[in-house]
Design the sequence.
């Protein structure tokens, strides 16, 4: 199959899939549960990528989550145009390149605020705990800070608390 041809989604038995033995990406039990919750809420919208022998190229976490959910068949797309070296490199690149992106926290906070107002469980987005609190409240804390904390000139500060590092002038 050439790279230009359209890839088709197939549904195959989960037990027919073969995990990549050298998969360097590690999935914690907590993350697998997050993926399972996502699949349960939104559906299995991101097919697993496999080679012609049913070897998993991308989607190990989704396969683990599908097993946890008791799914017998899952959507896959066959990727058959890659050389052995390209397949190895793509397995790494697929995981790493996504990590190289960043978030616009202002837009993310707005989206979370709208989801919260609709009583949607925003932890289904994968953001939980401190990460979620930081995004939801960092802008408000800065905007609502007392005027005495805004724009303090560092030159005026002469004392520093040895315990917390807070600088202050007498």
Sequence:
């Amino acid at each position: 199959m050439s790279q230009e041809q359209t890839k088709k989604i197939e549904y195959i038995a989960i037990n027919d899939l073969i995990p990549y033995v050298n998969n360097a990406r590690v999935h914690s039990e907590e993350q697998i549960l997050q993926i399972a919750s996502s699949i349960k809420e939104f559906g299995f919208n991101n097919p697993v990528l496999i080679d012609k022998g049913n070897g998993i190229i991308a989607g190990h976490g989704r396969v683990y989550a599908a097993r946890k959910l008791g799914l017998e068949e899952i959507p896959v797309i066959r990727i058959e145009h890659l050389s052995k070296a390209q397949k190895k490199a793509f397995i790494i690149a697929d995981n790493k390149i996504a990590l190289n992106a960043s978030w616009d926290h202002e837009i993310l906070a707005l989206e979370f605020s709208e989801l919260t107002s609709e009583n949607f469980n925003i932890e289904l987005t994968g953001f939980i705990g401190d990460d979620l609190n930081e995004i939801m409240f960092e802008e408000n804390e800065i905007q609502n800070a007392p005027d005495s904390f805004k724009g303090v000139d560092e030159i005026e500060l002469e004392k520093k608390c040895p315990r917390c590092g807070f600088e202050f002038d007498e």
Observations:
- The two ends are 75 Å apart (CA to CA).
- The beta strands are 9-13, 48-50, 56-58, 73-78, 159-160, 167-168.
